[in-house]
Amino acid sequence: MLQKRAYTKPMIVAHRGASGDAPENTIAAFMLAWEQGADAIEGDFHITKDGHIVCIHDDDTARVSGSKLVISKSTLKELQSLDIGSHFGDQFCNERIATIEQVFATVVKGKKILVEIKCGIEILPVLIDQIKRSSLDLSQIIVISFNQNIIKECKIIEPKLVALWLNDFFESNDIELIISTLLNIGADGISSNNNSTKELITKVIGLSLSYHSGWTMDNIDIIKKTINWGTQSITTNNPGKIKNELFGKKNHTRVI
Predict the structure, then answer these.
(1) In whole angstroms, how far apart are CA 249 and each of 37, 38, 228, 252, 254?
(2) Domain 11-247 classified CATH 3.20.20.190?
(3) Cα separation values, 99 from 51, 165, 238, 242, Å
(4) Fewer Cβ close by (within 10 Å): the C or N end of the chain?
């Protein structure tokens, strides 16, 4: 049985936007996430043949459009000719692959965006340029990646930009190796799908690094457990539902 205690409100992150209610990684999903009260959005990004950063999870468009275009071998114009919303519902038929500029433009003051890099380090100079061109403060942007080299290089290029290493705990759960990796690459913290041990969270926070519960936290009991363990954010497909279940519509502190 969980010990009851009051906890500090964690950040609620909308995984690929409010992807439980709208097509993932679309402007519709991100706008809905804000409407549902998300504290941050998370999106996946690749770079196109002609040097644009676009928001899509896979290496190609087959799953979300029914037509296969490889992102790295296609131009922005080609990619944006595809409907990536209808697979979720006819009402989303006008959704197109968004550029990172378009996604950044949805982020308002006081909110954050987690930028998951799904390609290689070639994206970093373009990303840093887009961040500088945007109206966002560096404190509103968090870079995340499974690729250790991307996190390491990101911290070299722009040390003030927060960068978190993604860890699939079900594939790699050697806690000492995880900790040494975080330190070696200079990450600001970790985002992990770990829901089985408090030890990792305790050790990460003990090093003054940040710990985040990543993809995808939709089970309220698991969410409450990781919050009690000290996680600083929850990434979920259903930000509105989870936020209401945790805090209610008015209460920001609740005992669990």
Answers:
(1) 10, 12, 21, 8, 11
(2) yes
(3) 11, 23, 23, 28
(4) N
Query: Tens of pLDDT along 160-216?
Result: 999 999 999 999 999 999 999 999 999 999 999 999 999 999 999 999 999 999 999
**Residue 30 and residue 17 in contact, taking contact as beta carbons nearer than 8 Å:** yes
Q: Which residue's structure tokens are 């941050």?
A: 40
- pLDDT band, very low/low/confident/very high, at 249 (cuts 50, 70, 90): low
Angle, CA 36 vertex, CA 34 and CA 40 arms, to 5°: 45
Sign of CA dihedral 71, 51, 55, 154: positive
Query: What is d(CA 159, CA 169) in angstroms, rounded to the nearest whole number?
Result: 26
Over its C-alpha atoms, the chain yields an Rg (Å, rounded) of 18
